[in-house]
Amino acid sequence: MVTLKIDDQETTVAEGMPIIEAARGLGIEIPHFCYHPKLSVSGSCKMCLVEVEGLAKLVTACTTVVSRNMVVRTRSEKVKEAQRAVLAMLLMNHPLDCPVCDKGGECPLQDYTYRYGPGKSEFSDEKWHFKKPVDLSPLIVLDRERCILCTRCVRFQEEVAVHPEIEVTERGRGSFIEVARPEGFTSNFSGNTIELCPVGALTSRPFRFKARPWELTRSPSVCPRCGCGCNIWLDVREDKIMRVLARENSPVDGGWLCDRGRFGYRFVNHASRLKTPLIRKGEGFIPCTWEEAISRVIGGFKKVREVYGSESIGGLASPKLTNEELYLFQKFFQEVAGTNSSGYTLNGDLMIESLRPAACSGLRRFSFQDIDEADSIFLIDGDPSKDLPILDLRIKKAVKRGARLFIAGSEEIELSGFASASPIPVGTELNSVPEKGGKGGFDRGFSDEIRDSKRSVILLGCKIDPSAVESLCTLLKEFHSNREEGWISLGVLMPEANTQGAQDMLLKKGTDLFSDIQKINLSPFLTKCLFVARQEIPDIANLRNHLDFLAVYDIFPSETTRVADVVFPAVAFSELDGTYTNSERRVQRLFKTTRSPGDAKPLWEVMTLMAKATGTDWDFHSSQDVMREISEKIPMYRYISYEGIGMKGSYADGTVAGPRYYR
Amino acid sequence: MKRSETAVQRIRDVFPDAVDDASAFHGDVSVTIRKDRLSGVVRLLKEEPDLGFDYLSDLAGVDYLGKEPRFEVVCHLTSTKDGTVIRLKIPVTSADPTLQTITPEYPSANWYEREVYDMFGITFPGHPDMRRILMPEGWRGHPLRKDYPLGGEAVTFTSNKDSIEEQSLPFILEGKRDGYLELTPDGFTLSNLERLGLSGAEGRIILNMGPQHPSTHGLLRLLIELNGERISRIIPEIGYLHTGIEKSGEHLSYPQALTLTDRADYLSNLFNNMAYCLAVERLLDLEIPLRAQYIRVLLCELNRLASHLLATGVMAHELGATSVLLYCFREREIIMDIFEMLSGVRMMTSYITIGGLRDELPEAFIGKVGGVLKIFPEKIDEYEKLLTKNPIWLKRTKGIGYLSASEALGLGASGPLLRGSGIKRDLRKQAPYSCYDHFDFDVPVGENGDVFDRYIIRVEEMRQSLRIIRQVIDKLPEGPVKADNRKVVLPPRDELDKGMEALIHHFLIASRGFPVPRGEAYVAVESPRGELGYYIISDGSEKPYRFRIRGPSFANLMSIPAMARDCYIADVVAIIGSIDPVLGDVDR
Predict the structure, then answer these.
(1) Strands A578-581 and A566-569, how do they pair?
(2) Nearest C-alpha neighbor of A223 from the set A241, A209, A198, A205
(3) Cβ of residue A126 closer than 8 Å to a chain B Cβ
């Protein structure tokens, strides 16, 4: 630890910390452009110049590391003069775009110019010109005149995303950013460059010219696109989501957001969203009230049950729903309808297995940060780059750090290029030896590698064969108990936002999570009446012929809604309070931020109304009420409460895992 | 200024434990007093001969939510001998939100303390009339508290009237239509009137004048108890024009809040701008160029002319002399045209801005003002010819609405109302601002304290305004009209095409505003109605923390019961006309 003084305030920090971070710990702002705590240090913009006693020249606070008894001044006359000069020089070639630049109002260049820069211009020559704007990709717009060449975007793409698709080209005053390859700037993480860019050079095309930052109300939420559960900010103006930003929750998302989450919000305000309940009339539908629609559904259910029995009623829920919605869904079907035929879908597959590495009890509780600490990572039949993109960034970072990556899978995936050995095909015995011709040099089996590493993370894709999981888990437990130091951590790559939650909620009453495997039997001969929530069913036309009654709860009209008897309008993720459980079993809160267009209701409310229509009175007036019952009835969630979850989420055992490092 | 420092010393001598803190900031002297010592300190300040703080300028509350003690009641006491102001700050906790009333020493504290109760929930035990003043009776909550939301009440439109739940509204008027009249199945009955001292005894009529009335100069309600034709009691009720200007000001940046000020006392727009800008400029320690200060004086005096023309014309019209109204408005139009030429706006010009003026004067401006100087003197003579010796006018105004000097002072009157009763107090002379001391002018003072004197004072003030304007034009220096500080003042428009720094600063000053250093300032100017003061507290951010407006008409209206003793209803019209109130600064 090192003790030093910054602006007459003493502080003690870890060795190796740059002055700029030590100052931030004291609440002292040192203006900077090219520096970013998660990227390599560039030291090029010179905005962070500070005075260090004993040194004749000013030094950049981002490159200079703290040393014992150092005395730093960030507001001396020399520093102020330098700050003014640096800004004056940056502004010399900066185009007068503020009125039309999206960054205006949240622009570090503007803010630093006001706080540290000159009030009057002394530059009267011609500014350097570029052709502008330039589409770097369908999502990112580049304005080369505004770019101050901080290279944050290039460094991010190179170091964090490991998709070096943009670069600085030319030299000196004429330098500019350009796409580096003919395939284009297609990185799934390109949107992060927008947030990194300190000026309005890189901006979002979907958001272009839509709103000024002060018009927007910022609310927290969780991305609904995959099982990572990255935390986001929703910037809303008058009930419309204008854009999505990353809300740093480092243990989950590292501070980044993938493009699916960042740009995939526009469905929420789409004009063709379902707005009112509909009941079938002939070939089409007529709008009706919720009471009418629900009584129609209950009527349909009752008729089918009379004829075919309870087991003929089926329910199908999507893992896009929140825990509260899923819990009441299964509660309705189990307790009120009296059927075991309810379950959730996994990427459209109707056969559901309880995919819980049941034997993971005994192993270390999986969290994404384990990847940051692991010395070996085993990826079995999954593709994080497609399914959980932010995890892909974590794995790449681990490999850069020196962890070894082993892949078992049939196809080439993006991470194959980072593996330490060739992938073994799925189905191979775990202790078989990989081909020598691959990365070369390994003469041990997959399972040997697991056994011999100290800190291992095993990641399973979700389509894996359950019996294979059984045998793997037995093996892992054996290794884990034999391990003197270190740990084994086992995680599943849940593809949808709440697949894990769906698994946890859709339990049969009284069943312990760890032993039972649920199957719902959608054999066309057994199920005669179906309630589908937020899921499109492939080949529904065929299935429909075997059903007497179909009710659908969804956001958009689809082939499935087209053949339904009753359609309920659903709420989107920003329109309800609720929780999602991500792939590390972290429960995170969604907040009701926008109003649904029309009369949509959350599914937990629909289920409550449906129960009431059958004469069963449930006492749920909010999603928090539902969560209270979940924490009572589902042992794994017994410590979960909305207050405990707060803004950062908490694990099912009630703990909140904060970041393990300051970065 | 020495008087206020002496005062602090004396307080410390007599009440050693009373003073928690004393400070001086840019000439303002503040003392923090323990609340149980307040009466003693106030009496000391008022009655000690060499202290003589005989006038309560303002009494307001501040909510420092998050700090303990949570509230502060701030008193500005003035000595009318030399204009010295001392600021007393009395902390009040949220656990015990009470404070001794100072109405025995300063009767004008009556309405001020009612407003503090209304807006903050601090009660004053011993107060003769502790009830709300601006909000309707039965309102729940205290709007100027920081945890009371801005716009917390949903506004009902056709599109949302079904989704607004009544319970979400933070207030429900407790079943009454208003505090005094309840609708019963048989019609209206009176309640609460005894509490107000309206006896409803045999032979008395209770008459309601206003709030909608052509002669109350705005939305003013007077509850009048008549004994035959004579008034036995008269109670003004205000709050009908309350629009929450002070609370809005806390949510706007400083340049944006400037636009609210025009609308407070809406006939003395530039005076409002001036007082506000002077207060903020004191907090910013900003030096205003001489040319800007002179032009500010010129614009204010033009505004005074316009206001007095309206006051005289309207009062004459209310007493039957409608021609005077039309003549006065004819001349007033010339001034409105000048303002329009200057800024594009006839009244709400916001032309005096933080840092100077909005822009340089147009070329034809001085010529136009010269035209005013040429025409007006004989016009003013014309009005006098119609009124001053007119027997009907004299019958309606002489001896009517008498207000003694001590009553006027005690009830917080200012402007022509105070000077009519013989007290020579004009802030332009006592506490000169914006270079008023560079110009020669007289301040007319009355002898009889009646309606006529106040009318004559206004007429004479018009002549003095012309005198000041002439001097300003003769002495007007060259130079910039805005302070040389790019972090506060918008850059010249032509730089926006060429200078990146200028564009950035314009963007941020216009959108976000500029941060003002922590501190507080009270600056008062002599508006046509009297002492118009702005008390601005800054917390270091871009928005004012407290945006307090000391409106002259608020205190002036308190004198109505004293002036309307035993007179006819018709005299009430004359009295109100002679006060010349503007409900904008009464209710805000």
Answers:
(1) unpaired
(2) A241
(3) no
Nearest to A214 among B496, B499, B511 (CB): B511
Rg (CA), chain B: 24
Q: Measuring CA to CA, how many Å separate B563 from each of A328, A515, B197, B233? A: 73, 92, 17, 11
CB B269, CB B262: distance < 8 Å: yes
Contact (Cβ atoms closer than 8 angstroms) between residue A273 and residue A569: yes
Residue A45 touches partner B, C-beta closer than 8 Å = no
Q: Given phi > 0 = left and psi -120 to 50 = alpha, else beta, which region is A43? A: left
Q: Which residues contact A620 (CB under 8 A, 6 or more apart)?
A: A328, A604, A605, A608, A626, A629
Q: For residue B211, is the peptide bond before it cis, meaning its omega torsion is within 30 degrees of 0? A: yes
C-alpha to C-alpha distance for B121 and B114, rounded to whole angstroms = 10
> Which B residues in the span 477-506 are in contact with A, Cβ-Cβ below 8 Å?
485-487, 491, 495-505
Q: Record the pTM.
A: 0.88
Confidence of residue A599 (pLDDT cuts 50, 70, 90): confident
Say whether the ipTM exceeds 0.90. Answer: no
DSSP-derived 3-state class of residue B578: helix
**Token duo for residue A40:** 């390599």
A108 — contact with chain B (CB < 8 Å)? no
CB B62 within 8 A of CB B50: no
User: How far is Cα B555 from Cα B115, in angstroms, rounded to an integer?
Assistant: 12
> Over 60: is that where the pLDDT of A360 sits?
no
Residue A436 clears pLDDT 70, i.e. is over it: no
d(CA A659, CA B559) in angstroms, rounded, equals 67
- Kindly state the tokens that stand for B447: 């002898």
User: How does A604-624 read in b/e, with b if 16+ C-beta sit within 10 Å?
Assistant: bbbbbbbbebeeeebebeebb
| Nearest alpha carbon to residue A320 among A494, A462, A551 | A494
Indicate whether A508 pLDDT > 80.
no
Residues of chain B with pLDDT under 50: 166-183, 185-188
pLDDT score, position A513: 30
- The lowest-confidence range among A351-355, A531-535, B525-529 is A351-355
B-chain CB neighbours of A109 within 8 Å are 504
